[in-house]
Amino acid sequence: MFLTKPNTSCSDGAALSAAKFIPYGRQSIDAEDIAAVVAALQSDYLTTGPMVEAFEQAFAHATGAEHAVSCNSGTAALHLAALAFDLQPGDAVVVPTLTFLATANVVRMCGADVVFSDVDPHTGLVTATALEEALARVPAGKSVRAAFPVHLNGQVCDMEALSRVAVEAGIEMVEDACHALGAPGIGATKYSQMACFSTHAVKAVATGEGGVVTTADAERARRMRSLRSHGILRDPDRFRQCELAFNRGTWNPWYYEMQEIGWNYRMPDILCALGMSQLKKLDEFSRRRREIAALYDELLRPLFPAIQSVPHGQDGHGWHLYAVLVDFAGFGISRGGAMERLRAAGVGTQVHYLPVHRQPYYRGLYGDLHLPGADSYYERCLSLPFFPAMSNDDVKRVVTALRELAG
After folding, report:
1. Is residue 86 scored above 60 in pLDDT?
2. Which pLDDT band holds residue 19 (cuts at 50, 70, 90)?
3. E strands within 90-225?
4. 191, 160 Cβ separation under 8 angstroms
5. What are the beta bridge partners of residue 174?
6. In the prediction, which pLDDT does 4 show?
7. pLDDT in tens, 356-370
8. Rounded mean pLDDT of the chain?
9. Fewest C-beta in 10 Å: which of 36, 202, 383, 395?
C-alpha cells in the first residue's frame, strides 16, 4: 500500500478519490519505506555511510549504468556532470529552453555560456535539427563543449539522432534525465557521456531531495565523488604531498588532500535508505503510471483537438508528467483562469515550463531570442494530476473537470 495524505492504495484509491483536492504530483511512501528510514536512523550513520554505496549500486543496476554517483539534488547532479568535463569560462553548452532552470544554471555556475535551442512545438523536446541550428549560433570566440538534451515530461529525446549531430560537432552530451527514470535504456548512456537524475519527492522514486549521475566513465565517476565532498581525496596512490601523507612509507590515517575546489553535495545514508526502498518499487510505480496515462489518453480523445495529449513518441517514456496542449483562446479563457477553475473543482495543475530564455537573468545576458517551437509549446501546455496513488476515478474526475472547462 502507498501511504500518502490521505493514506490510499494505488489500486483502489478510494480515500484519495473522496479527497477534496487532487494535486498535480505526490510522493508514494509505504510502510517499507518508513521502516527503511527508521533502520537507517538506528544505525551508526546519519550522513555518509554504507547505504550510499548500496544505493548507488542499486541505481546503476536499475538503469543499466556502469557507475552511479549520488548527490543531494538533481541540480547538484547536473553541476557535477558539468564539472566532470571541465566546463569553464569561454566554453558554451547548448541547452533546450524548455526545461527547469537548473539545466541552464549549472552552465553559468561553471562560468560558461548557454546557447538556448528551440524544441519541437508539439513534444517540447530538442530535435537534431534544433541542435544543429543552435550550434550554428554559438558566438564567435566561444568553444562549444556539450549539449544537455532534456527528456521533458519523461518522454525520451531521439538520442541516436542527437548523437550523430554531437559526434560530427565534436561535443559531448549530458542527458538531463530528471524526468525519465524508468524509461527503457535511460541511464545506460549509450548515446551520451553522462545522464543526470532527480529523486525529488514527486519524481519516479523519492528521497525527498536528491540526485544521481550515471556514466560509463570510471575516472569521471571517481572525480565526481571527490567533487561532491569538497574535492577531498583519500586515495594514497593519488596524493601529491608524500612528505605529509606518509610516515616511513605508511599512510597517515588522518591525512587527505584537496587538489581542486569541491562542494558539499553528499546524499546522507537516511535518504539513501529511502531511495533503496523506493527503487524496489520502481517497476510497480512505472506500471501504474503507464496505466494512468493510457486511461487519460482514452478519456481525452473526445476532446481532441481542443485538448490533446502531448505526443508520447516511440522511444520509451519515464512518465514523470502527463501534459496536455490546450486551446485556451478557443475556450475564451486564459490559462491562469482555467487553472483557477480547475482548482475550484479540486484539480491541481501546473505548467512545465516557462522557456528559460525568457527569464530576466538570461534576457539580460543574451537579449531576446526567437524560439517559436518553445513559445508555441509553452502557450498551450498544462500538466495534469499524475502519480501512482491516483485511482481510475480520480482520472475520470480530472477529465470531467476539463470537459466542463471546454463547455
Report:
1. yes
2. low
3. 91-96, 113-117, 143-147, 172-176, 194-198, 211-215
4. yes
5. 194
6. 40
7. 999 999 999 999 999
8. 94
9. 202
Q: What is the mean pLDDT of residues 242-250?
A: 94
Domains of the chain in sequence order: 31-279 (3.40.640.10), 281-406 (3.90.1150.10)
The strands making up 194-198's β-sheet, listed across from edge to edge, are 67-71, 211-215, 194-198, 172-176, 143-147, 91-96, 113-117
Helices (H) and strands (E) in the chain, counts: 16, 14
DSSP letter for 24, please.
S
Cut 0.85: pTM above it: yes
Report the candidate in 116, 104, 107, 115 with the shortest Cα–Cα distance to residue 88. 107
| pLDDT for res 14 | 42
End-to-end CA distance of the chain: 37
**58: helix, coil or strand?**
helix
Task: Return all residues near 362 (Cβ < 8 A) that are at least 6 apart.
Answer: 104, 114, 116, 356
Rounded CA separation 124/96 (Å): 9
Peptide bond preceding 372 in cis form (omega within 30 of 0)? no
Q: Write phi, then psi, for 69 (nearest 5 degrees).
A: -120, 115
Please identify every residue annotated as catalytic.
Answer: 203
